[in-house]
Amino acid sequence: MELRLALLGFGNVNRALARLLLRKADALRAAHDLTLTVTGISTDSHGRCIDPAGIDLKAALDAYAERALERLHRGAPTPDTAAFLQAVPADLVVEATWMNPRTGQPATDLVRAALGRGLHVVTANKGPLAYAYRELSALARAKRLGFFFESTVMDGAPVHAFGREGLPVSVIRRIRGVLNSTTNSILTRLEQGVPFAEALQEMQAAGLAEADPSNDIDGWDSALKITVLANVHMGADLRPADVERTGIGGVTIEQVQAALKEGRRIKLLCEAWRDGEAVRARVAPVALPLDSPLAHVMRTSSAVTFEADTLTELTIIEGDSSPDTTAFGVLADIVNIARGRHLA
After folding, report:
1. Which residues in the chain come in under a pLDDT of 50?
2. The domain 2-156+324-343 belongs to what CATH superfamily?
């Protein structure tokens, strides 16, 4: 079986995916009789290209570095991503573009357009799920299309697959998680006596925090992630603005060290819970007891705990993350769509 892929965005995640596709091509054929052919790549800053016969991914990685993806293009030019989406000969779109976390755009519109054209979609962006999950999932179901999004929370860890396939006929009552690597790393370093500004600079120097870290520090990224989890796994229809949100900007070395002496560890906790017929959500620094698995998630690792009517408590913990782990989540989604898991 061959599945033709169109990549929207060619930043860290989709470039890591390209390298993973090259590395796993033989394994995909041997294990799943699956050949994945990239027929198009679209970026706003490095050009775009379409080749119905398949794009040489090694050449694409080189061309991206030179901002010259157009030299791999075959056929009529595509002036923008919207035109690219209509022209590219593909079966599945991998959406990993830049996104405004306060609107979910342009990712949400791109996913909507791809599904509307009849293409499967795998997205690494939280926006489409935080702002339009019910609409987009209904559209995918109506068209019998795959719409998967494993990498939106905890990178490549199978959080969504677990909820989708591991908890049938279950009611998830509460979800709790430590889901933002920047804030988690800063809190870890505060425990060690490192000043807040210095801990943040370390994350920025490592390329794990943005030059403007406010989305992480103020809890906005965490609010997006708990919104995604609540919408997907608890049937909620929340938006990030519905999440009660407090960031870590006011947390001090003295506070985290005092908590540790008392047998607690401060984490930026994401939480969604059922309140009668409603689902509510909150993000805030919380001093967790040390017997909680979430208290032991350090540096850039993440964890999430599901509480259901069938399993009292189950926690998934991911080690330190990178674009490579995010790319694996994308690849897992592609394979599961090829296997027809979206129709299960």
Report:
1. none
2. NAD(P)-binding Rossmann-like Domain (3.40.50.720)
